[in-house]
């Protein structure tokens, strides 16, 4: 992940640097949330991650059907969520302290 992109995320994420396990233990699930604004920010972050090469197209495997051959120039149809979670959300939340995106 691009260090400049991580620095921007650190600045914007209120939970960044906190103990993710402690947050999950102390904040009831009904208080975990992702707002419409959070989703708009996530879309922007995904676009930046595609542009920066963190999220890349992968060819479809003819045997398993797995892969994500999205066009990085297509602004309407982007990467699938498996690709986004594996190559963006998991690394970012791990770096942030191990909490879910909703608590970050």
Q: Report the sheet with the most strands, covering strand number, pairing sense and barrel closure.
A: none
The total count of strands amounts to: 0
* Mean pLDDT, all residues: 90
Task: State the end-to-end CA separation.
Answer: 17 Å
Query: What would the principal axes of the Cα set say about the shape?
Result: globular
Stretches where pLDDT is under 50 for at least 5 consecutive residues are none
Number of helices: 4
Q: Beta-strand level of the residues, as a percent range?
A: under 5%
Structure description:
The structure is a single chain. This protein has 104 residues and is an all-alpha fold. The radius of gyration is 15 Å and the shape is globular. Helices cover 48% and strands 0% of the residues. The model has no long low-confidence stretch (mean pLDDT 90). The chain contains four helices and no strands.
Write a short abstract of this structure.
With 104 residues, the chain is mainly alpha-helical. The protein is 48% helix and 0% strand. The model has no long low-confidence stretch (mean pLDDT 90).
């Amino acid at each position: 992940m691009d260090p400049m992109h991580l620095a921007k995320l650190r600045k914007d994420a209120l939970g960044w640097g906190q103990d993710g396990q402690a947050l999950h233990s102390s904040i009831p699930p009904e208080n975990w949330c992702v707002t419409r604004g959070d989703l708009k920010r996530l879309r922007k972050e995904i676009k930046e991650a595609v542009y920066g090469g963190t999220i890349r197209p992968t060819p479809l495997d003819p045997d398993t059907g797995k892969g994500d051959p999205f066009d990085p120039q297509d602004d309407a149809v982007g990467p699938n969520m498996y690709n986004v979670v594996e190559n963006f959300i998991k690394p970012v939340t791990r770096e942030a302290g191990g909490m879910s995106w909703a608590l970050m």
